[in-house]
Amino acid sequence: MKEYTVLTINPGSSSTKMGLVRGNEVVFDKTVDHHKEDFADCKTFADQEPIRVAMIMDALKEENVDLSSIDAISGRGVGLYPCAGGTYQIDDLVYDHAKKDVMGIHHPATLGIVISYKLSKQLGVPAFFVNPMPTDELCDEARMTGIKGIYRPAKGHPLNQKQVAIHHSELMGKKYEDCNYILLHLGGGSSITAHRKGRMIDGNRAGDGQGPICPNRSGDICVDDVARCMKKGMTFDEVREMASGKGGLLNLCGTDDLREVKSMIADGDIEAKRAYDAMIYSMGKWTAMMAGALKGEVDGILMTGGMAYDTELCEKLKEYVGWIAPVYVYPGSFETEALGFGAIRVLSGQEQAKKYTGRPVWEGFDFAD
Known about the structure:
Elements: E1 5-11, E2 15-22, E3 25-33, H1 49-62, E4 72-75, E5 87-89, H2 92-100, H3 111-123, E6 127-130, H4 140-143, H5 158-171, E7 180-185, E8 191-196, E9 199-203, H6 223-231, H7 236-246, H8 249-253, H9 258-266, H10 270-293, E10 300-305, H11 311-321, E11 327-331, H12 335-347
Parallel strand pairs: 1-4, 4-6, 7-10, 10-11
Antiparallel strand pairs: 1-2, 2-3, 5-6, 7-8, 8-9
């Protein structure tokens, strides 16, 4: 069987991550750093596209990559309407929606699709996106709130989580679509989701003030918490920032670097220890909630993300959740593998590429709001 080679593109605010995946291995995984002056003349993220492409081509030249060996491009899927998970071919509609940023993400990650589309035309190969950021597979019950017409969106880390779940299933000699998992992506913002038979049916709204305490997210806050913050003089926007980027360990300890927090604890900082323990406690609580969403039928609990490198954190967390199901740890990010292997599954005929419809996968219930 042919070993397909896929170039992966994953743009960030200050860098573009790129990789080359061949067969079942990552040939290289490279980060091209950017500086503010690189984009000094760019008014929009879209304007950055030719500059980033030139840097990518230079990096490929440095790695001595034969461009004719590339069978497909796979880019980060951001800026589209919510859709189910899977691998999608990037067509004109996908490109148009990503370039327009139809969901108003306002982040350079939308260039993942834009750059992949342009390079695919240049190289004469197909382009794909895999398990996009707006992946929405919530069950109906998870969408509901107690207020008519107000529904919960899906917000998590589907690209990394689904790759870890697929990889773990393969190690167990099973298929992801036949298993139930709880996935914990433990990073600056953490998402804890219930995966039932290959679908992410529920999870916290990572970054929206719902979920566990994180390095720079507040974790669960309710209406009364918001009111108290505002009575103390905070504006609504400042409260939102606390929920989505300035709360958690950053607010409690003055840093969102877990290594610094651990150093503070080692030096006897009681407040840092309390914050660290509370974060782990909240992660355990949300994991148990997802077990409830799966009716206790859990084949495994899979921990991933940057904080999964902290063995003390993982061991303490196991004390809270080990009674639910076996716990497995896959530290770090597997986004390059996810982008590459997703495209290879389509190229090799293991999966059929899905088609982006240009409409949200869920637009409301049949009954009137």
